Amino acid sequence: MFAARAGADAKTNGVYCGASMIQNAKWNAAAYPWAAQIRDQVTAAAQPWLKFTDDELWDLMFGHTISRSWMVLSNGHCPACERDVPMYTWEMDALARPWKVRCPHCKELFPKNDFRPRRARRL
Ligand SMILES: [Zn+2]
Description:
By secondary structure, this protein is of the alpha+beta class. The protein has helices at residues 19-31, 33-46, 54-59, 115-120; strands at residues 76-77, 84-85, 91-92, 101-102, 109-110. It has a three-stranded antiparallel beta sheet with strand order 3-4-5, with no helix packed on it. A hairpin with a 6-residue loop joins strand 1 and strand 2. Zinc ion is lined by residues 78, 80-81, 83, 103, 105-106, 108.
């Protein structure tokens, strides 16, 4: 599943969730139904991602060298239906529609080119 990287850059601890935070979450999940429910929801949401190798997950990221926005007219409108689409309301589903965003109004997909092969060339 997730193989540890060898070498000096190998991670030994979580960055956002330290060991004590993870232990507290485990204790809470064992003691409180509300915490167990959150644990189960998070675990279920993570399942599709566990099928990827580390390299496949890294390949989902694009580098800082990309010369375009990661959204469609980020805080503007849809080029297809021309309705307002404020920032972060573009619909994204990386598993169902990788490399595409969808207009919340007309459901048009962007970008219009096939970005995946372009990504394979290491943009
Ligand atoms: Zn639209």
